[in-house]
Design a protein that fits this description.
Layout lengths: L16 H5 L2 E3 H7 L4 H10 L6 E4 L2 E5 H16 L1
Antiparallel strand pairs: 1-3, 2-3
């Protein structure tokens, strides 16, 4: 007698708001939001105009979405001043 086993599907619990609010963005995503050349972005990071980002590996950097949002607000305020 062959009894089929029933697989239980468990719902994935929702992520805490702090995790969904602060997702990590890779450079192509950042540059799609702030349309500047890659070299200008890295120069701005080096000079402290843009956030430094988080090193995920030797050649991988990501930025918190909240830091990019803050940068956009700051740039907007500077352009209105």
């Amino acid at each position: 007698m062959n009894v089929a086993t029933e697989t239980k599907k468990t719902a994935t619990p929702p992520l805490p708001e702090s995790l969904t609010k602060d997702v990590l963005l890779r450079l192509p995503q950042v540059l799609s939001i702030i349309p500047i050349p890659k070299s200008s972005w890295w120069r701005g990071v080096k000079e402290g105009r843009y956030p430094r980002g988080i090193k995920l590996g030797e050649r991988t950097t990501a930025w918190r979405a909240s830091e990019i949002d803050a940068l956009i607000e700051r740039l907007d305020a500077e352009s209105r001043a």
